[in-house]
Design goal:
This protein is an alpha/beta fold and 215 residues long. Helices cover 30% and strands 27% of the residues. The chain has six helices and nine strands, in the order βββαββαααβαβαββ. β6, α5 and β7 form a beta-alpha-beta unit. α2 packs parallel to α4.
Length: 215
């Protein structure tokens, strides 16, 4: 597939999706298609439904009405994982989790190790491989989780505020990584408040009160 082939059939779609807690809907009849080779920024104020929508796309929640269709393997990069600081998992361990599915494809151990090392290098965490997750700064945690996502080489990559807590150089590095993932043909959907990331995206969905108010 050619990079940024926006004429290809969508790998991910939402059709008239509604979702709520109890009797209160927080997502209202949202429809969107996401094509291979593109980065879509999901923007809007806090509480507008951005993260909930991406969780619906990922299958974390099921719509109350409407449907989500997915074609291909999907990875979700979260912003704040529910991982205790005392859990003795290292940066390498966090990234290695992303390769677990590769075992079923009989990928050799050496290939997995190379993929892990390359992902850690891409996010700039070289030398911190044995640092425990609890010892990392917020920005370093975000980069480790991004590495966990990209090491999976999925067709669909969803991210919730991957630039949270990052300095300007790291935010730029994250934008470059997402562009590289799109260039290999992946479908990228990213919740972000970062104006430069929004400007760099191929498409933008702007949310307000659980509805798309701009594209």
């Amino acid at each position: 597939m050619l990079p940024h082939d926006q004429t290809a059939s969508p790998l991910l779609s939402a059709h008239d999706v509604c979702f709520g807690y109890d009797s209160h809907d927080v997502i209202h009849q949202v429809s969107a298609d996401f094509s291979p080779g593109t980065v879509t920024a999901v923007a809007g104020p806090n509480g507008s439904g951005k993260s909930t929508f991406v969780e619906l796309l990922a299958g974390v929640h099921n719509p109350r009405r409407g449907a989500i269709t997915r074609h291909g393997k999907l990875a979700l990069v979260v912003q704040r994982p529910s991982t205790p600081d005392t859990l003795p998992v290292t940066v390498r361990d966090v990234v290695a989790i992303g390769t677990w599915g590769r075992r079923s494809r009989r990928v050799r151990r050496a290939e997995r190790e190379q993929a892990i090392a390359e992902a850690i290098d891409r996010v700039g965490l070289n030398g911190l491989e044995q640092r425990t997750f609890g010892e990392l700064s917020g920005g370093q945690r975000q980069r480790a989780l991004l590495a966990q996502g990209i090491v999976q080489q999925t067709e669909i990559l969803l991210l919730d505020e991957p630039a949270a807590g990052l300095d300007a150089a790291s935010r730029q590095g994250t934008r470059e990584i997402l562009a590289e993932e799109a260039a290999r043909g992946a479908t990228i959907v990213c919740v972000t408040h970062d104006e430069e990331s929004i400007a760099a995206a191929d498409h933008v969905l702007r949310f307000e009160s659980g509805r798309i108010v701009g594209r």
